[in-house]
């Protein structure tokens, strides 16, 4: 059952990978989401990898994940009848989200101005790589372009090697989330004023937003962080964030002060129980230990940190990430395993919260697939119950006959004219 | 001009990242957000850098300021019963309450949803913490850096299997708020239609994993584990960051993604490649020889200025952009033309740099309506104005460190 939360609202999804998550979120929240795609299918239907390496649209994992809960209709934008269908859908929609090159939809009569005349209530959200005014407004996009422009790539990777992107591109997902929240912000006044509006989402800005205020450092401290692999912080006050362990890596925040001191003390005590670490570590007042935070680190600070970090490394070498995490939880140490999808899938916490959901793909793939479930648990209106991603154009008859009240004969004509 | 969310009242007990960023989305769009904080246990971000003039102080952190624009702030030490009584007097005013402690604090203080809904029957309340309000690890203490490791993002950041080069900062703190704020706004609409409020339990963990969904589904179905693979792609070749000419003695890198043969030919033209390697003529050949391809492209790019080359490649229809650092983004014409950067006058820090919104609305544009509050900045206007407390009463409460 779809959620009651946004029941009765309809979103037209004209995005590609720059915004597919937006419609997915609306579907999670209970809205009717209609993906409008070209007759041959949207470019998101062929994003690798594919389930079982079968390279067709139904095995495309990106589509399986981010088109779940949606319906699909096809419309040929090169064809006047096809465009008219989209306009008629927009007349009956509450939201439209799109990520075409800037100006393209305007040029074919499906821009905000044209559609707002038909439907003043429409909230029309355009996702753009670089906004709609600057020199990059028409730039060609790939996910790595946003990652590079927005500043995250510069800080990821090791010195002497190239800056890095994550191995599951993220910029389009940030933009899709931003499209969802901004569309819902505009929804609130629309429900009383009856007036929709046009929203522009800027993908570069979405990535800048992930930088955790590092962007203020040059202005306030006159320095900025460069990529240093598993370390974080400036060159003269850097701290190791990721350690090796028997079967992978552990991430840990080793610091002092009010927030971190108790955690570091607990770690040092744990090491001491196993005969590791130096005697001074047990004596140290970790709550008042804040080297490099309020003043420059001294040679003594560097020596202590080097010794502490090498002791921690030796300690973690003796255990698996699961062992370290289990004990870290008991001792309330700020650490976490560098988990992969196998670790996550086995995690007891997620199981105990019934996080995972089964989505039936019996008629397309002959099985059920296990999905990450709802992004939140809502007491009155549970969210995130999903139907499988639609086949390309699967809902043409339902939507065009039902919503637009076309006759089967008319649909046959439109098919013959390649409008659908 | 009116803001989209004018008239919505939010009582914000949250701290650190996800909670305050969630309410910032709403505050910048006009919601009246009152943050409750205390010097007894300050928001961790208040004591973190960057600071004005690189000098620490509880009201000098831009880290805190950036996530608390457009809000009002009061100081109450909620460990004291009297402070909780005062906080409760604000509950009937609130459409939405947000908190982000580990899931014991609000229960201990009898400020849980069950307690507060008695004061406001149609209350919408969001609790957000690391791993959710229930389950064996509910009390897990942590920050987004650890959550980014736990929820899989560190693992897929590296040069190959076994390598780990994580994203900067508390990555998942910048995923989850879009989900929590969306849930709140949808809940407001549901309340408008039905008169019913509700309680929202959002684990940062569970929200963040939405950004990893294809890999999680794949593993459950086929046991395939997504491994880090540097900048390799199955869709683009070449694809990656290539070192351009140094500038002022510093490295410069350029990201390039080539999708098809036409773009590849355009890339070679722009780079002025004199020789051609026949292996790279076809997409199949480029995908089959990625190391040689990277080396070939790398040598050509090394001679060029990153920004000049970006303009030429983009004109030729090739996706490219310099790998920008935190100075570059302040000199960025695209962000500038979007009106992204702001200087706001902070009560203690004076004019301070803030990043703006990542979206722009035509009819009810949001804005950074004011700089973040210093601790307790709005005590008087809220305790006297809204709660009609007398000056003497307020003075006494300050002496008792209730207002603190």
Which tags fit this structure?
heterodimer; A: 420 residues; alpha/beta; Rossmann fold; 3-stranded antiparallel β-sheet; elongated; B: 404 residues; formyl-coa transferase, domain 3; 2 domains; 12 strands
Question: Any overview of this molecule?
Answer:
- The complex is a heterodimer of chains A (420) and B (404).
- Chain A has 420 residues and is α/β, with parallel strands linked by helices.
- In chain A, 38% of the residues lie in helices and 14% in strands.
- Chain A folds into two domains: 10-210 and 353-416, Crotonobetainyl-coa:carnitine coa-transferase, domain 1 (Rossmann fold, 3-Layer(aba) Sandwich), CATH 3.40.50; 241-340, formyl-coa transferase, domain 3, CATH 3.30.1540.
- Chain A has 18 helices and 14 strands.
- Chain A is elongated, with a radius of gyration of 26 Å.
- Chain B is an alpha/beta fold and 404 residues long.
- Chain B has two domains: 9-211 and 337-399, Rossmann fold (3-Layer(aba) Sandwich); 239-323, 2-Layer Sandwich (formyl-coa transferase, domain 3), CATH 3.30.1540.10.
- Helix content of chain B is 33%, strand content 16%.
- Chain B has 16 helices and twelve strands.
- The two termini of chain B are 36 Å apart.
- The chains are: A alpha/beta (420), B alpha/beta (404).
- At the A-B interface, helix 1, helix 2, helix 6, helix 7 and strand 6 of A face helix 2, helix 6, helix 7, strand 6 and helix 8 of B.
- What's the helix count of chain A? 18
Question: In CATH, what is the class of the largest domain in chain A?
Answer: Alpha Beta
Question: What summary fits the major beta sheet of chain A?
Answer: 6 strands, parallel
Instruction: Tell me the overall shape of chain B.
Output: elongated
Within the largest sheet of chain B, what's the order of strands?
3-2-1-4-5-6
Rg of chain B, Cα atoms, Å: 25 Å
Q: Portion of residues in helices of chain B?
A: 25-40%
What is the strand tally of chain A?
Answer: 14
């Amino acid at each position: 059952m779809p959620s009651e939360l946004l029941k009765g609202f309809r979103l037209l999804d004209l995005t590609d990978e720059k915004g597919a998550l937006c419609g997915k979120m609306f579907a999670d929240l209970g809205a009717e989401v209609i993906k409008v795609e070209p007759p041959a299918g949207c470019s998101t239907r062929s994003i690798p990898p594919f389930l079982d390496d079968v390279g067709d649209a139904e095995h495309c994992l990106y589509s399986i994940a981010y088109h779940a809960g949606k319906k699909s209709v096809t419309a040929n934008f090169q064809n006047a009848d096809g465009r008219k269908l989209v306009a008629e859908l927009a007349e009956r929609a509450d939201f439209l989200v799109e990520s075409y090159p800037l100006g393209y939809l305007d040029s074919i009569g499906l821009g905000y101005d044209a559609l707002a005349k038909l439907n003043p209530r429409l909230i029309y959200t355009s996702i753009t790589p670089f906004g709609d005014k600057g020199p990059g407004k028409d730039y060609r996009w790939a996910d790595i372009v946003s990652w590079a422009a927005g500043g995250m790539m510069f800080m990821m990777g090791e010195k002497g090697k190239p800056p890095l992107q994550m191995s599951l591109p993220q910029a389009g997902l940030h933009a899709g989330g931003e499209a969802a929240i901004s569309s819902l912000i505009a929804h609130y006044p629309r429900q009383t004023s009856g007036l929709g509006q046009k929203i522009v989402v800027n993908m570069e800005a979405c990535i800048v937003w992930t930088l955790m205020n590092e962007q203020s450092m040059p202005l306030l401290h006159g320095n900025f962080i460069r990529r240093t692999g598993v370390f974080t912080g400036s060159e003269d006050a850097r701290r190791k964030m990721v350690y090796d362990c028997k079967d992978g890596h552990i991430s840990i925040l080793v610091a002092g002060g009010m927030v971190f001191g108790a955690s570091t003390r607990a770690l040092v005590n744990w090491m001491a129980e196993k005969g590791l670490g130096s005697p001074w570590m047990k004596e140290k007042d970790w709550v008042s230990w804040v080297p490099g935070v309020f003043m420059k680190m001294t040679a003594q600070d560097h020596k202590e940190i080097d010794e502490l970090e090498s002791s921690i490394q030796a300690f973690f070498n003796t255990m698996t990430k699961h062992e370290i995490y289990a004990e870290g939880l008991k001792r309330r140490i700020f650490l976490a395993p560098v988990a992969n999808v196998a670790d996550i899938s086995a995690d007891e916490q997620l199981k105990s919260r019934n996080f995972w959901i089964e989505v039936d793909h019996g008629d397309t793939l002959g099985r059920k697939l296990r999905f990450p479930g709802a992004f939140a648990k809502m007491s009155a209106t549970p969210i995130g119950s999903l139907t499988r991603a639609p086949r390309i154009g699967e809902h043409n008859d339902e939507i065009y006959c039902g919503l637009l009240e076309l006759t089967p004969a008319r649909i046959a004509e439109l098919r013959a004219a390649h409008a659908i | 001009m009116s803001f989209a969310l004018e008239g919505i009242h939010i009582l914000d007990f949250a701290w650190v990242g996800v909670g305050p960023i969630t309410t910032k989305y709403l505050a910048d769009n006009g919601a009246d957000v009152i943050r409750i904080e205390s010097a007894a246990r300050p928001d961790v971000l208040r004591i973190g850098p960057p600071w004005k003039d690189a000098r620490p102080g509880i009201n000098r952190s831009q880290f805190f300021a950036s996530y608390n624009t457009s809000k009002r702030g009061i100081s109450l030490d909620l460990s004291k019963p009297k402070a909780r009584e005062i906080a409760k007097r604000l509950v009937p005013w609130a459409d939405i309450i947000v908190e982000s402690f580990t899931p014991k604090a609000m229960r201990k203080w009898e400020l849980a949803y069950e307690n507060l809904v008695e004061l406001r029957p149609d209350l919408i309340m969001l609790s957000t913490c690391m791993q959710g309000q229930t389950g064996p690890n509910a009390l897990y203490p942590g920050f987004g850096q650890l959550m980014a490791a736990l929820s899989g993002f560190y693992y897929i950041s590296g040069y190959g299997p076994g390598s780990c080069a994580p994203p900067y900062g508390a990555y998942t703190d910048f995923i989850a708020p879009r989900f929590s704020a969306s849930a709140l706004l949808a809940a407001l609409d549901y309340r408008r239609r039905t008169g019913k409020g509700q309680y929202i339990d959002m684990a940062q963990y569970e929200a963040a994993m939405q950004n990893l969904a294809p890999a999680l589904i794949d593993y459950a179905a086929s046991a395939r584990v997504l491994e880090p693979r540097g900048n390799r792609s199955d869709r683009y070749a070449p694809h990656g960051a290539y070192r351009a000419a140094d500038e002022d003695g510093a490295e410069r890198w350029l990201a390039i993604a080539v999708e098809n043969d036409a773009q590849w030919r355009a890339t070679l033209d722009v780079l002025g490649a004199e020789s051609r390697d026949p292996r790279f003529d076809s997409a199949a050949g480029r995908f089959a020889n990625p190391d040689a391809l990277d080396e070939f492209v790398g040598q050509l790019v090394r001679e060029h200025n990153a920004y000049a080359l970006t303009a030429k490649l983009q004109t030729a229809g090739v996706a490219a952009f310099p790998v920008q650092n935190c100075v570059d983004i302040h000199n960025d014409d695209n962000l500038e033309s979007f009106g992204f950067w702001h200087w706001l006058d902070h009560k203690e820090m004076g004019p301070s740099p803030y990043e703006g919104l990542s979206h722009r609305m035509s009819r009810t544009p949001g804005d950074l309506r004011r700089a973040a509050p210093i601790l307790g900045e709005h005590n008087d206007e809220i305790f006297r104005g809204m709660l009609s407390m007398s000056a003497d009463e307020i003075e006494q409460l300050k002496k008792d460190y209730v207002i603190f």
